[in-house]
Amino acid sequence: MNKSLVLIKPDGVQRLMIGKIISLIEERGLKITGLKMLKMDDDLALKHYSAHVDKAFFKELKGFMTSSPLIAICVEGTNAVTLMRSMMGATNPLEAAPGTIRGDYGITVGMNLIHGS
Questions:
Q1: CA 34/CA 46 separation, integer angstroms
Q2: pLDDT given for residue 65 in this prediction
Q3: What does DSSP assign to residue 90?
Q4: β-bridge partners, 70
Q5: What pLDDT was estimated at residue 60?
Q6: Of residues 9, 62, 102, 115, which has the active-site annotation?
Q7: What pLDDT was estimated at residue 71?
Q8: Collapsing DSSP states into helix, strand and coil, what is residue 93?
Q9: Which strand ranges, in their side-by-side order, compose the sheet holding 2-8?
Q10: Which pLDDT does position 105 carry in this prediction?
Q11: Overall pTM surpassing 0.85 (yes/no)
């Protein structure tokens, strides 16, 4: 058993995709062990995305992730991280396979509904 952090990004919350994404997670046999709606502030964005702080896209990413509430979910299960990554699909929805969350519902690289780690 292992755990994975899943964030339903602001676009997923705004597009009313919370229930759909939670259902997809549960249908794959993963257990939700924690769930919280929060508004990410600048400090949390800097900590969570510390590996990207010096990258050109960070300012836009931080602006988007702090723009409105998101849902933080802790999921647990056998190979939870690997399973969540396969469910999410490629970061770019145009490159994500059909049947994945990003492939079916993502709009852009930034507005791709979900983050997992």
A1: 22
A2: 96
A3: -
A4: 38
A5: 94
A6: 115
A7: 99
A8: coil
A9: 31-38, 70-77, 2-8, 114-116
A10: 98
A11: yes
* Whole-number Å distance between alpha carbons of 91 and 85: 10
Question: How many angstroms separate the CA atoms of 50 and 62, rounded?
Answer: 11
**Do β-strands 114-116 and 31-38 pair in parallel, antiparallel, or remain unpaired?**
unpaired
DSSP code for 96: S
How many alpha carbons fall within 13 Å on the CB side of residue 75? 30
CATH class of 2-40+69-116: alpha beta
In this prediction, the residues of the chain whose per-residue pLDDT falls under 50 are none
Is residue 115 part of the annotated active site? The answer reads yes
Instruction: Sketch the domain layout of the chain as residue ranges.
Output: 2-40+69-116
Query: Which residue, among 81, 112, 83, 84, has the nearest Cα to 96 in the 3D structure?
Result: 112
> Measured in whole angstroms, how far is the alpha carbon of residue 59 from the centre of its chain?
18
3-state secondary structure 8-66: ECHHHHHCCCHHHHHHHHHHCCCEEEEEEEECCCHHHHHHHCHHHCCCCCHHHHHHHHC
